[in-house]
Design brief:
The protein is an alpha+beta fold. It contains 2 helices and 7 strands; from the N terminus they run ααβββββββ. Strands 4-5-6-7 form a 4-stranded antiparallel beta sheet, with no helix packed on it. The protein is rod-shaped, with a radius of gyration of 52 Å.
Length: about 140
């Protein structure tokens, strides 16, 4: 592109006395530039790296000890063998059961000891002893 004709008009334009500042009299000035428009922009700041949340470690829970099933046997009587071992007769509902020390009743209770005044049974998982008195006044309905 040939600019010579335009450059030739420049002295005549200046001779007219046109003042560029007069043409901009009512306008406000541009604010100063915050950055140099011809300088490359800085790279964006890297995104913060968030650490993964710490794993939640639940405290070990101790299972609550459940209550043993009710011991709903009643003492009916006993029989002593010549060797000293005893057999007791227990009533559960309308069933009569004969039992010896060490025997398990309905899978829930083990008979620990049998003597003349009491029968001691315990729940094997909960280790809760139950004492059943053998004198008739203690077990009357």
């Amino acid at each position: 592109m040939n600019l010579a004709p335009l450059i030739g008009l420049l002295p005549s334009f200046l001779a007219l006395g046109v003042d560029a500042r007069a043409n901009n009299a009512g306008r406000t000035a541009w604010p100063p530039a915050r950055t140099d428009p011809f300088w490359p922009a800085p790279p964006p700041a890297p995104k913060p790296v968030l650490a993964p949340p710490a794993p939640v470690i639940a405290a070990p829970t101790v299972p609550a000890r459940s209550a043993a099933p009710p011991f709903d046997y009643r003492y009916l009587g006993s029989f002593a063998h010549a060797d000293g071992s005893r057999v007791v007769f227990l009533l559960k509902g309308d069933r009569v059961i004969s039992a010896r020390a060490g025997q398990t009743l309905d899978g829930n209770y083990v008979i620990d000891t049998i003597d003349e005044t009491r029968i001691t049974v315990r729940h094997p998982e909960l280790d809760q002893p139950v004492v059943l008195r053998t004198d008739r006044s203690a077990n009357a309905p």
